[in-house]
């Protein structure tokens, strides 16, 4: 019998950031993942606090400095976020391709950030220098394991067969 890990099935974390939630883009962004055959196996809304932001972005200050850390962590706490666990073949890489480059100015058309992450003066006033790029997604498989476990308990992740999987296997 084939184990799902043999097929390259992975789980990855996506967080729809405060700009995505407040702009009412959650549905349109999630549709992009569903259209790519990624299965939603966990979902929740959360108001992040400073402790949780530190756990989530545990290496950001070291990588990009205190200014980027503080603006990003502050922005992430400015409104609720929606966290989603997605499952699929090569899910980690696929999701990163779908969301596009970190900086909206560099994100290609057709990606979530390239299509929707336009900066506005009003949004900049709220969050200082935070890059309002709509989505966070795990950067690699190891990070995905850490982040999925940080955000979701075992009992908050679900195993089920999609209609497409029923037809395929
Ligand atoms: N040059 C920058 N200036 C300001 N903020 C930045 C910059 N680079 C990254 N950030 C902020 O830090 C976050 C994490 O940066 P990282 O390098 O991990 O990019 P990412 O993996 O594409 O983003 P995320 O972790 O949110 O998915 C970015 O989403 C952004 O909010």
From TrEMBL:
Instruction: Look up the record and give one Gene Ontology term from the biological process aspect.
Output: UTP biosynthetic process
Q: Which UniProt keywords apply?
A: ATP-binding, Kinase, Magnesium, Metal-binding, Nucleotide metabolism, Nucleotide-binding, Transferase
What's its EC?
Answer: 2.7.4.6
Cofactor annotation: Mg(2+)
Write down the top EC class of this protein: transferase
Q: Which domain of life is it from?
A: Bacteria
Signal peptide: which range, if any?
A: none
Q: State the Gene Ontology terms under molecular function.
A: ATP binding; metal ion binding; nucleoside diphosphate kinase activity
Where's the Nucleoside diphosphate kinase-like domain?
A: 9-159
Which family does the record claim for this protein?
Belongs to the NDK family.
Q: What is this protein called?
A: nucleoside-diphosphate kinase
Q: Which organism is it from?
A: Haloechinothrix aidingensis
Q: Lineage, please? A: Bacteria, Bacillati, Actinomycetota, Actinomycetes, Pseudonocardiales
